[in-house]
Amino acid sequence: MGYKAEVYNKWKAKNLPRLKHLAGLRLEKRKAEKAEKRKAEQEALHPLLRTLGSKRRKGKIFICPQCNVEFYRRPCDVSGQCCSLKCKHAYQARNKVVLFCVICGKEFHVSPSYKNKRTCCRVCTGKYHSQIARAKRESKPPCFREYKALHLGAELRDWRKSVFLRDNYTCRWTDCEVRGGYLEAHHIRRFKEYPSLRLVLDNGITLCREHHNKTRNREEKLIPFFEELMQKHCVNDSIEAVRP
What we know:
Blueprint (H helix, E strand, L loop, with lengths): L2 H42 L15 E4 L6 E4 L11 H10 L2 E4 L6 E4 L11 H18 L2 H10 L2 H13 L16 E5 L16 E5 H5 L9 H20 L2
Antiparallel strand pairs: 1-2, 3-4, 5-6
């Protein structure tokens, strides 16, 4: 041990209690300053936002429109206007909005939050929605109504059944052996673009759901492929008919 280290150790042993006392005083002073700062912050806050700890409450302060009393709302419940259910019901009863039913013309009263309501009861609501749906249907072009009527008509159902019977309820995609179950009749040439071929039997082919989904947005590109499948199918049928 050198001479400097020995002198330092003697000085430290002599002054250590005094150094500890000074460090304690500094620590106490720092704690007192923090406490005073926290107390000042709490006093500056609204009384309803104060807590026992150092952090303030995270909600908001509102004034009840019924009793004009300030109240606290949590962050998850800041949408309420009144301080209690009693004040809420009294406020709604005092501020009722007068409306007239668009169906029966009857006068009815609602709270301000329902000021855009159109009908007075469930029966009138059902009639109102029926009128809206009827107006939407009538506003669509005639071609859409013809298209929908054809899709839901008996002629298309008969065409679909004929396609299934011709293909023996079997998917005609290459190397697909799905028979029965959920099958779909696919138009080789698109239903919308070729109206004269909508009910032609040779324009339909039976596909399973998986392979029918593969034809979406690829109908024009797959026309030669389906025509080749139809020719192969006709050849196979002719061979089986000639076979003893």
